Amino acid sequence: MSAVTDPPLDLRETARVSMARMAHTDVVIPKDRRRDVARPPGPRGIQVVRRFVTGNDAPWFMVEIERKYPTIAHMNLIGEHTYLLTSPEAIVEAFIGHGRETMKGPGLQGAKAVLGNGLLTSEGEVHLRNRRLVQPAFHRDRIAEYARDMVSLTLDHEAAWRDGQAVDMQTDMSALTLTIVGRTLFGADLADDAQEIGEALEGLLTGMGRYLVFGPKALSIPSPPRKRALTSFARIDRIVQRTIDEHRALGDTGDMLSMLLAAEEDGSGFTDAQVRDEAMTLILAGHETTAMTMTWTWMLLAQYPEVAEWLHEELDAVLDGRAPTMDDMASLPRSRAVIAESIRLYPPAWIQGRRRLSDIEVDGWTVPEGSITLISQFAMHRSPRWWDSSLAFRPQRWIDAEGNFSEDAPGQPRGAWFPFGWGNRRCIGEQFAWTEATLVLATLAQRWRPELVPGSDITLIPAVTLRSRDGMPMVLRRR
Hey, which end of the chain has fewer CB within 10 Å, N or C? Predict the structure, then answer.
């Protein structure tokens, strides 16, 4: 069905449904109202509001706090007692040692407006059950099958590239990764929907993305950002539902969406609403994070030509012009190192929050039940305390003495590197993302060396992911 014949968007109904999604919870949400505990020092009042809530430099604010408060800092964030953990030991203690005594923070509670109660946002037994049902789609054997489509679709995408062509690499990579997610996980061709989903996602992230942390009340007050966000919700919802309906008509095609529709445990499977929520989560989260990883990777390679040459040496030697395969992954340590270093400097998931479900002790301070604990990948990955030449793009740091890629090669302590989260809430699509990013880079970088448009203003936007405010203007250059 074309967009022209679709019925008008009902924003009033979209607001009602979105607010109901945000209000839903699988567990009782505790609040920290304690007056009998001392709070560690940290930024106060207007500084928190200006830098974290209303400004665009929240990632840099996290960096400043990490430098000033080396273990833990307290701040009042939108009426919540919030603790930013800034040492690897504190992070491991809170997120691994006591990781099961937490629930998602207010940011992801707000993200339910569009994601619903999917894997990223559900809690407790609901989350564990759904994770078990979805897990087979990310088994290594499945990812090996996906790899063929990842490369094939990248080659199809490359066919439209022209030497000297100006592109917004952020938009270009979003279109490619959306197509890959559509084919591999949903057996669907989302290429025709890429522009609409891209525009809707842009409207969401630049509209009310940061304000969803306020929960349902974020959508209760009329405003231009609210209207843009609701329009985006409705457009994306329509596309996802259309994909599900078409899949039902086709029957079991062996992909992940078929698995969701047929999944059962103890005699019960996903409801229609749950299928929608899981599909929405995987379409948006599954393509957006890798798209941003690739966007920042191309920017960094353009800024560091010597690293690009180092990468090209590997691609020329290993692939010699042919398309990469899953079997080549171990032979492409430099390619994986470039992706890792890009994620270190520009992690798509730049901050992570949990609400405590019990009191814990961190560095002699009581962190009460109901409080929020935050950790920032952006701050910890850039800290000179844990990384040599922390602000430099040095993929070589990820190559061990035997010449292999290793996440342990830089020598950073546990808790200083966590791009895909922790413990039982670690990203289920981690290996999918590593495989996709590495194969896309290896496929395209063999023949292309994109250049940044001179004078481009690359400004970070801390939305749900770490994006560039005005895209990534680049010119395609054939090697």
Answer: N
So what's the pLDDT on residue 404?
97
Q: What is the CATH number of domain 3-475?
A: 1.10.630.10
Give the up-direction half-sphere exposure of residue 289: CA atoms within 13 A in the CB hemisphere.
21
Please write down the HEC assignment for all residues of the chain. Answer: CCHHHCCCCCHHHHHHHHHHHHHCCCCCCCCCCCCCCCCCCCCCHHHHHHHHHCCCCHHHHHHHHHHHCCCEEEEEECCEEEEEECCHHHHHHHHHHCHHHEEECHHHHHHHHHHCCCCCCCCHHHHHHHHHHHHHHHCHHHHHHHHHHHHHHHHHHHCCCCCCCEEEHHHHHHHHHHHHHHHHHHCCCCHHHHHHHHHHHHHHHHHCHHHHHHHHHHHCCCCHHHHHHHHHHHHHHHHHHHHHHHHHHHCCCCCHHHHHHHCEECCEECCHHHHHHHHHHHHHHHHHHHHHHHHHHHHHHHHCHHHHHHHHHHHHHHCCCCCCCHHHHHHCHHHHHHHHHHHHHCCCCCCEEEEECCCEEECCEEECCCCEEEECHHHHHCCCCCCCCCCCCCHHHHECCCCCECCCCCCCCCCCCCCCCCHHHCCCCHHHHHHHHHHHHHHHHCCECCEECCCCCCCEEECCCEEECCCCEEECCEC
pTM: 0.91
Whether residue 2 has pLDDT greater than 50 = no
Q: Cα separation of 457 and 473, whole Å? A: 9
**Can you tell me the distance from the alpha carbon of 365 to that of 42, in angstroms, rounded to the nearest whole number?**
13
Give per-residue pLDDT as tens, 351-379. Answer: 988 999 999 999 999 999 999 999 999 99
Give 303-342 pLDDT, tens digit per residue.
999 999 999 999 999 999 999 999 999 999 999 999 999 9
Q: Residue written as tokens 């952006």?
A: 378
List Cβ neighbours of 329 (8 Å cut-off, separation of 6 or more): 336, 435, 438, 439
Question: Which band of pLDDT confidence, cut at 50, 70 and 90, is reported for residue 137?
Answer: confident
Q: Of 105-109, 381-385, 455-459, which gets the smallest average pLDDT?
A: 105-109
